[in-house]
Design brief:
Among the domains are: 127 residues, Helix Hairpins, CATH 1.10.287; 48 residues, no CATH class. The chain contains five helices and no strands.
Length: 264
């Protein structure tokens, strides 16, 4: 095999492969359907043309038949008027029209047969085109479904190839999460035991907190007593002073009663 023969073979194989990848059966079916519709339109135009010719011949036959009938009436009138020569001339012309009528009648018969065949062909072609259209849509739907399924399978295949890497990534993430959780728990234990100082909490010792709680309690009791005194109509200081004055008066009275120098 020569160089050019090998080159042609390789080129054809590459070209066929490229064409096979670029070809879409759905587009091919649609193109074929359009061509069939164009053929059907041509057949219908042919039927219309034949029907037009047939109608034209029928009109010609009708016109010649009217002329022949008129010549017959003229021949009868000429004989009635004693003009045999005119009657003979009218019948001669009528004979010529009869020949034309026979010829047109033959053409009409042929046109009618041709029209009938073309109408039948158009109907059969229409039936085939309708059947092809139904089959075409079915094949297109099946091809689209197969194409979608192929893409889904390819996607699953790609995911399967990547699952090993994803599994390793998940395992590493879980290991890091466990390590961070254990480290956080260890730090909490060290802070709770006092080995590490918690800079986020309070820096006061237990004694200081107890003293502050006691002072707060005393302040609350004093304020409660003050509120009670105000409700009773006197403040704690006036109540104390009143109590002191009463005690002094009692003592002074008792002293006077016991004094012998005091006159009765």
């Amino acid at each position: 095999m020569g160089f050019w023969q090998r080159f042609k073979m390789i080129f054809k194989s590459k070209a066929n492969r490229m064409l096979d990848k670029a070809e879409d059966p759905r587009e091919t079916l649609d193109y074929s359907y359009e061509k069939q519709l164009e053929l059907l339109q041509k057949v219908r135009r042919g039927v219309a043309d034949v029907a037009t010719s047939r109608k034209r011949v029928e009109l010609q036959i009708q016109g010649l038949q009217n002329q022949a009938d008129k010549l017959t009436e003229q021949a009868k009138a000429a004989l009635a008027g004693g003009r045999e020569d005119l009657a003979r001339e009218a019948l001669t012309r009528r004979s010529g029209l009869s020949a034309q009528l026979d010829d047109l009648q033959g053409q009409l018969t042929q046109l009618m047969a041709q029209e009938e065949k073309m109408v039948d062909a158009a109907q059969r072609l229409q039936t085939k085109i309708d059947s092809f259209r139904t089959r075409k849509e079915t094949i297109k739907a099946q091809y689209s479904a197969a194409e979608a399924q192929t893409k889904i399978n390819e996607a699953f295949a790609g995911v399967s190839d990547e699952m090993s890497d994803v599994g390793l990534a998940i395992q590493r993430a879980e290991e890091k999460t466990e390590t961070m959780t254990a480290r956080a728990g260890a730090i909490d234990e060290l802070v709770a035991s006092g080995a590490l100082e918690d800079f986020t909490g309070s820096t006061k010792d237990n004694l200081t907190r107890e003293l502050e709680d006691m002072a707060s309690t005393n302040q609350v009791e004093d304020e409660l007593a003050s509120l009670r005194a105000e409700i009773g109509g006197a403040t704690p200081n006036s109540a104390i002073e009143s109590g002191s004055d009463s005690s002094a008066a009692v003592k002074e009275t008792e002293g006077e009663g016991n004094n012998p120098q005091n006159p009765a």
